Amino acid sequence: MPQDLIHDPKGGMPRLLEIMRRLRDPNTGCPWDIEQDFATIAPYTIEEAYEVADAIQREDWAELKGELGDLLFQSVFHAQMAAEKGLFTFDDVANGMSDKMVARHPHVFGDESRDKSAEQQTADWEKIKAAERAGKEQQGTLDGVAVNLPALTRAVKLQKRAARVGFDWPDSSLVIDKIVEEARELEEASDSLTEEAVKEEFGDLLFVVANLARHLKVDPEEALRAANAKFTRRFEGIEAKLAAIGKSPAQSNLEEMDALWDAVKLEEKVEK
C-alpha cells in the first residue's frame, strides 16, 4: 500500500518517488509543492549542487549524505512534474543515463580494450559526445554548452570546444600577456568609457583569466571558492585579534588591519 511505503524507513527510491507524487497531488498535496514548475525549482537545483560541492570541500561526509539526498530530491521533483505533463518519467531519466554511460564506456561495457591512457580515454569520450551532438542536430562547435552554467565554468567549456578545432593560444605565456594587455587597457580607459563599456572590457579580462585557468588545468570556480574561503578565514582572524583588544573592524583602520592580516598569514604558515 502507498501509505505503508511512505512510512517505510527502508523504502528506498520507491518511497521517495511516492512521497514526491503525494506532495504534488492536486487534491491532497502540499500547496507550495503544487504551485511549483520547472523554472521555479531550477534555482533550488543549482543551489543544492553547490551545497554538495561545499560539503565535499569541507570533507563533511555526514553532511554530504544529506546534501546528496537534497540534490536527488531535485531530480525527483523535476521528473514528477515532467510525468504530470506526459513528457517523461523518473525511470526514463534513470534508463537514459544508464544507456548513455554504457555507450560512453565501450572499454568497460563493450569489447574495446581498457589498455588506454587517461588522455586517450578523454579523447575517445569527446568523440562519442560529438557524435551524440551530431545526432541532436547540434552542428556548431559551441552548440550544447549550457547557457546557465556559472560564467567562469561556461567560459572554460566554450574555450575547450574552440581549442578542439585549433582556436587556441599555443601556451600559457601568451595568455598571461593577453591578461596584462587587457588589464592595462581597462585601467587606461576606465575613466573615458561608459559604464556598459567598462563592464564589457572587464568581462573580456575575466574571460582571458578563465582561459589561463584552462591552460594551467585549474578549475576557476574551485580556485575562486578556495580564495573566498581563505579570505573569510583570514578576515575572521583579524576580527578575533581586534576583539582581543576590545575593538571591532569599524573602530580600526586599514593600516592596523593590514598588519593584522600579515600576522594571521604568518600564523597560518607556522601551523603548516
Automatic annotation (TrEMBL):
InterPro entries: MazG-like_dom, NTP-PPase_MazG-like_C, NTP-PPase_MazG-like_N, NTP_PyrPHydrolase_MazG
GO molecular function: ATP diphosphatase activity
EC numbers: 3.6.1.8
Top-level taxon of origin: Bacteria
Limits of the NTP pyrophosphohydrolase MazG-like domain: 36-109, 176-234
Enzyme class: hydrolase
Matching Pfam families: MazG
Reaction(s) this enzyme catalyzes, per UniProt: ATP + H2O = AMP + diphosphate + H(+)
CDD domains: NTP-PPase_MazG_Cterm, NTP-PPase_MazG_Nterm
GO biological process terms on file: dATP catabolic process; dGTP catabolic process; dTTP catabolic process; dUTP catabolic process; response to stress; TTP catabolic process; UTP catabolic process
Record-linked PANTHER family: NUCLEOSIDE TRIPHOSPHATE PYROPHOSPHOHYDROLASE
Name by which UniProt lists this protein: Nucleoside triphosphate pyrophosphohydrolase
Organism: Actibacterium pelagium
